[in-house]
């Protein structure tokens, strides 16, 4: 049991580091030609570079992102 808990702790830390900052996206008008943050910000207002509510930027957010799928599934 202890080995399993330790492995889970390590796994969550790596998920956090692997996907940190990867879920940002551009919102505004037509974003079909936006590839990255620079493209989005160069378009000016009303375009914004934002993160999804549920993301992988820290361990708490990882849990909040994955928990609903565990509970429902």
Share of helix, binned: 40-55%
- Tell me the count of domains: 2
Order of helices and strands: HEHEH
Neighbour order of strands in the largest sheet: 1-2
Major sheet summary line: 2 strands, antiparallel
In the predicted model, the low-confidence regions spanning at least 5 consecutive residues are none
Give your account of this protein's structure.
The chain is mainly alpha-helical and 73 residues long. The protein has 2 domains: 1-20 and 56-73, no CATH class; 23-52, no CATH class. Helices cover 52% and strands 11% of the residues. The protein has 3 helices and 2 strands; from the N terminus they run αβαβα. A two-stranded antiparallel ribbon has the order 1-2. The longest helix is centred in the N-terminal third of the chain and has 18 residues, at 2-19. It is elongated. It starts with a helix and ends with a helix. The model has no long low-confidence stretch (mean pLDDT 77).
Entry keywords:
single chain, mainly alpha, two-stranded antiparallel sheet, 11% strand, elongated
Task: Give a quick rundown of the structure.
The protein has 73 residues and is mainly alpha-helical. It has helices at 2-19, 37-42, 59-72; strands at residues 24-27, 48-51.
Helices and strands in order, then pairings?
Blueprint: H1 2-19, E1 24-27, H2 37-42, E2 48-51, H3 59-72
Antiparallel strand pairs: 1-2
């Amino acid at each position: 049991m202890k080995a399993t808990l330790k492995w889970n702790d390590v796994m969550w830390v790596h998920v956090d580091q692997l996907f940190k900052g990867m879920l940002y996206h551009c919102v505004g008008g037509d974003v079909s030609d936006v590839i990255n943050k620079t493209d989005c910000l160069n378009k000016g207002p009303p375009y914004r570079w934002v993160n999804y509510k549920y993301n992988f930027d820290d361990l708490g957010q990882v849990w909040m992102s994955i928990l609903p799928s565990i509970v429902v599934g």
